[in-house]
């Protein structure tokens, strides 16, 4: 075990001592020892106890710890401290810019226990007001988390798009006479990506020599199938090459998915080589299948019957539901959010859903503050008419499945989004029962982010999807597609089942700032993957239709 490895154990020991408010003098001594061990002029592993203890700042106690670490790789005292700290909090120590003091605030004051939750909190602007933080620190932490995630080989689709377009633009400048397109998972709009794939009609050796002359660092598959490289943001790319006369066929094949291609080849062993993808599908007796749907579900059967859905588009979205303002943990005021929706987004309505009272960490609304917000909404609705703000709330689903206000308050909202934010460690049975009880509450209009997942960082709590969706169908509850790129929850793989059961879906940005409204584009993309059409999407209803929907729901409760 080299000195650096021993020093890392001491460093972690010192960090956890500081995090857990251990004796500050011992904490400082351990941290100082970590530095001195790293700078030893000889290998600690080969040194005697006497040689080590004679070094400045390293006494007998530290020497004994060094030898124990070399023998076992750890310290009993360190292991005891580790047991007191959630694994996700330990992982935060690897994020640049986050030391024990800041992590202590994040963990103890904000109840954040994983990097994913921390990243989400940055997006929700929750760190700005915390002691020792601020907007600049929050944004720096967010960037460092993104870099850390990319180092693990994955990236969110939403984060990749800007960089992918820049790479495509650079390639087009280098190869202006060639066809260059996105393909693979990126073209199918997968929510998380390992690679961004491109296809170009160019011999591979020409591609390689040109890119190497532009200082690209390349790798080539052993089978020479694709050229690999990474951009400055550590995002991985693969470029596939093809002859011009087989471009459409290879575009279809590289787009995938493998399950989709298997279904095609089951119909016809050889994929025909034709001028366009549409022509290829037609030759196979199929309607053209949009890339987002090519996942190996029932899209082939639907295409054979000419029964594919007309997929939802960005321009179909007429309003936005589930949004936050400065009344809870939002960045912008209610009026700013509404005005942006009306003037910049061209929408017909805004559903405001600030956090409920249990969400103390998010400045959840007391009943008095709800009434204050309602008064402002009434005033703004007069000012902004015919644009309308609907009075909503994101009511926490409590541990027993009940909602966060008495019925007489819930009854006064135009609509209620019911969401889980706490006690995420339930079994599948308990978590499912909890959701179903909330769904059966007559005042629940929309089930918010059904599993609580945070992509690339926190798995959703386990639920029986069919039971939950069936309960929504029976109780006429809408299911949210939370469009925040970190959530995209309900997962698109369950959209088809929900639609088959007659459940409406709603593409909700969960916006905490004006720019957050634009996240609806990512909800549209996963909605398309799930086969969602505009007539099955609640916030594709126009103002008159959605007002009628809310009025009917209220009448059912009366």
TrEMBL record:
Name assigned to this protein: Helix-hairpin-helix domain-containing protein
Database matches in SUPFAM superfamilies: DNA polymerase beta, N-terminal domain-like (SSF47802), Nucleotidyltransferase (SSF81301), PHP domain-like (SSF89550)
Pfam family, one: HHH_8
InterPro entries membership: DNA-dir_DNA_pol_X, DNA_pol_lamdba_lyase_dom_sf, DNA_Pol_thumb_sf, HHH_MUS81, NT_sf, PHP_phosphatase, Pol/His_phosphatase_N, Pol/histidinol_Pase-like
Source taxon at top rank: Bacteria
Domain DNA-directed DNA polymerase X: start-end pairs: 1-295
Location of the Polymerase/histidinol phosphatase N-terminal domain: 319-399
């Amino acid at each position: 075990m080299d000195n650096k490895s021993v020093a890392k154990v001491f460093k972690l020991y010192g960090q956890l001592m500081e995090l857990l408010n251990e004796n500050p003098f011992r904490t400082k001594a351990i941290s100082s020892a970590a530095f001195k061990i790293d700078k030893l002029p000889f290998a600690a592993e080969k040194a005697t106890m006497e040689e080590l203890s004679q070094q400045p700042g390293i006494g007998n106690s530290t020497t004994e710890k060094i030898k124990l670490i070399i023998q076992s790789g750890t310290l009993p005292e360190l292991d005891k401290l580790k047991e007191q700290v959630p694994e996700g909090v330990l992982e935060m120590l690897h994020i640049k810019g986050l030391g024990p003091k800041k992590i202590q605030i994040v963990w103890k004051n904000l109840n954040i226990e994983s990097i994913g939750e921390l990243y989400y909190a940055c997006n929700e602007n929750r760190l700005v007001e915390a002691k020792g933080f601020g907007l600049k620190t929050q944004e720096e932490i967010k960037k460092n988390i993104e870099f850390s995630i990319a180092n693990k080989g994955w990236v969110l689709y939403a984060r990749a798009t800007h960089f992918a377009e820049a790479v495509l633009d650079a390639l087009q400048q280098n190869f202006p006479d060639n066809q260059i397109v996105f393909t693979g998972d990126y073209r199918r709009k997968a929510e998380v990506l390992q690679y961004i794939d491109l296809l170009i009609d160019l011999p591979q050796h020409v591609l390689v020599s040109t890119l190497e002359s532009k200082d690209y660092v390349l790798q080539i598959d052993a089978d020479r199938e694709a050229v690999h490289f990474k951009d400055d943001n550590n995002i991985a790319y693969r470029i596939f090459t093809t002859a011009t006369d087989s471009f459409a066929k290879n575009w279809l094949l590289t787009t995938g998915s493998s399950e989709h291609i298997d279904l095609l080849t089951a119909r016809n062993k050889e994929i025909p080589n034709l001028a366009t993808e549409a022509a290829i599908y037609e030759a196979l007796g199929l309607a053209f299948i949009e890339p987002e749907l090519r996942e190996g579900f029932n899209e082939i059967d639907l295409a054979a019957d000419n029964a594919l859905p007309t997929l939802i588009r960005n321009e179909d979205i007429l309003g936005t539901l589930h949004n936050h303002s400065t009344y809870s943990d939002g960045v912008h005021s209610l009026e700013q959010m509404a005005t942006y929706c009306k003037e910049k987004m061209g929408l017909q309505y805004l559903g405001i859903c600030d956090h409920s009272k249990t969400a103390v960490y998010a400045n959840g609304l007391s009943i008095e503050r709800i009434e204050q917000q309602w008064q402002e909404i009434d005033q703004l609705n007069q000012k902004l008419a015919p644009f309308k703000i609907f009075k909503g709330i994101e009511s926490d689903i409590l541990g027993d499945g009940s909602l966060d206000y008495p019925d007489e308050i819930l009854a006064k909202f135009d609509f209620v989004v019911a969401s889980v934010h706490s006690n995420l460690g339930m079994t599948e049975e308990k978590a499912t029962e909890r959701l179903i009880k909330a769904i059966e509450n007559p005042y629940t209009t929309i089930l918010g982010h059904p599993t609580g997942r945070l992509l690339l960082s926190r798995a959703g709590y386990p639920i029986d999807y069919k039971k939950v969706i069936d309960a929504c169908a029976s109780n006429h509850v809408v299911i949210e597609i939370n469009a925040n790129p970190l959530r995209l929850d309900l997962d698109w793989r369950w959209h088809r089942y929900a639609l088959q059961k007659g459940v409406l879906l709603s593409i909700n940005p969960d916006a905490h700032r004006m720019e957050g409204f634009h996240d609806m584009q990512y909800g549209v993309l996963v909605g398309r993957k799930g086969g969602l059409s505009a007539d099955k999407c609640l916030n594709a209803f126009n103002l008159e239709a959605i007002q009628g929907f809310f009025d009917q729901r209220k009448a059912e409760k009366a």
